[in-house]
Amino acid sequence: MRVARRIYDLCVNRHKIDPHNLIFDMLTFTVGSGDVEYRDAAIQTLEAIRQLHAEFPEVGSTLGLSNISFGLAAHARIYLNSVFLHHCIEAGMTSVIINVKHIIPLTKMSEKDRAICEELLFHPDDHSLFKFIEHFSNKTIDNSQNDEAFEALSDEEKIAKLLLDGDKERMIPLVERVRHTINPDTIVNEILIDAMKVVGELFGSGKMQLPFVLQSAETMKTTVDYLNPYLSKQEKETDTTLVIGTVKGDVHDVGKNLVDIILSNNGFKVINIGIKTELEEYLEVMNSKSIHAIGMSGLLVKSTQVMKENLEIMAAKGIEIPVLLGGAALTRSFVDDFCRPIYKGPIFYCRDAFDGVIAMSRIEKYNADPSTELDTRLGGDMVEKAPKEVYDIVIPPYHELKMPSREIKIPTPPFWGRRVLRGDQIDFDIVCEWINKRTLFKMHWGYKRAGMAVDEYKNQELLIFDEARGWNIDANASSQPLDTIIGNAQHVLSFPRQRKAPHRALSDFFTHTRDDVLPLTCVSVGDKFSAYEKELYESNQYLEYNMVHGFGVELAEALAEMIHKQIRLDLNIASEDEGYTLRDVRMNRYQGARYSFGYPACPDLEQSRIIFDLLRPEEFGITLSETFQIYPEQSTTALIVHHKEATYYSV
Fold first, then answer.
1. What CA–CA distances, in Å, run from 220 to 175, 244, 296, 316, 370?
2. Is the pLDDT score of 325 beyond 80?
3. How many angstroms separate the Cα of 638 from the Cα of each of 147, 326, 518, 625?
4. DSSP code for 593
5. Which of 79, 424, 463, 589 has the fewest Cβ atoms within 10 angstroms?
6. pLDDT-derived band of residue 447, with 50, 70 and 90 as boundaries?
7. What is the pTM of this model?
8. Is the dihedral of CA 462, 466, 467, 468 positive or negative?
9. Which pairing describes strands 323-326 and 347-349: parallel, antiparallel, or unpaired?
10. What is the mean pLDDT of the chain?
11. What is d(CA 267, CA 357) in angstroms, rounded to the nearest whole number?
């Protein structure tokens, strides 16, 4: 905690970093070594997590979870990791580094499994480690059909357990037998729905991770489809229905589809109208069908602005239907300050799919009895908002700023202009080597001038000239005064300047006294991934769908990394430390940096249009939406800065 206080003071009090942007790695040692010194490692780590969040409630925390079980047998580590993760989350930890294959839901453990894990973690003595090793020496996750405990359950309990386990193979034979004694409507509307609610509770409490939730949803969908011929065909007028889509200009559909999956498997009807959804499409469905709520989803900041504009138009039309808002960039402050004041109808701020379940449940109850109040407060609304301190930020005049070194040699590229690499020209094995496995496993399984004067902002521009100005040897590079050629620029890229020292802008990394070189890239895995994802989604293979999407996104990122490496080789700035071939995969060991619009150093997505104008990727089916997001989603653009001092930062 002494170290944490020093870091907090340095970041927050001295450098004015928002504490919400801090994540502390809590660290832990293994309890599996037998070393008495580390016997209480789990206890110390949990206490550190509690103390950190008690003293600094705004910050985040993380942990390399599997360190707790280092040295133990692989199959035993899964149990210990999972129990420790549960307690860390209860203590307040906000994120974790773990391969999801190395954890299981607590619901798949026996009470004895958990008790032995907790003894080793929290009440160890000289015999605890040996007891743990002996207990788990031949232990496996038992999904056997001859499981005595399973066979002892009632038919209703068996159905619920198989749903929790995500075991659709065993579920279908079971419901085929049971449907003759239990009404199929009861199986679906009571047993399965109640079990899915338990799944939601387990997910919300951190006892079940997303891949297992998707397995349960797959099992639910498969079971309902199997029982469909035997269900009552009478439609109920009271079926609570949500129309959901990703808002105009937004090409991301995974989050919205997860909401569809979870809500559908909790007994609600969902009309999913896809991506890049115009407001008129929502309203057309609302006017033609019995709709009880509208769901607007979006990933980026631009999408939240579209949500606000949609609500303004709906308010002007006198529409007051409940609205569910969700997406990665959406915040409680934005909903409270910009959305709720302009729309008279109820607005639910949904941080995840299970918030959507709660919202739709309340809407259903309200529709059944309008005399009751419709409570729109969800988990995100209950978190107390810390008052923000307002600082006067003064950016020094441009001539007073410390610029990156101008002594750096500017490289001469082997060609000027546009170069196209097609799939048959790229070694797919090399691309796969560039995939960031850690991100793939862990993560997937607008900025304006703000009142700056024009003259001040002008120093943050990068002028793009025609490729004909390129040079074959450095001596031929033009050093014409900027004032004499500024009108010949084809495009101008504008960059915001940091509000804190060193007050950096991306344009600072390029020389102002002569021509420089700016590589631009656009990579895509193509639209086949999106088509395949759609097939998986429509065939109810939800877990596979989520994994394929994550792989596609990371494959595009790997392509971008590989092309960046090729550019360094072409510019002759690759170092011995990173190697001199594409097969030398060395992340973050290179000169320069790769920046994409929409990220912290250059957040203005609209300038992606300039990259598209120069590279013309539309010829290959890669397009920009109205809000400047790239389609197919598994694509990315970037500008490459070759300067040795180029680093990543936030404005």
1. 12, 21, 25, 41, 31
2. yes
3. 54, 28, 10, 17
4. E
5. 424
6. very low
7. 0.58
8. negative
9. parallel
10. 84
11. 9
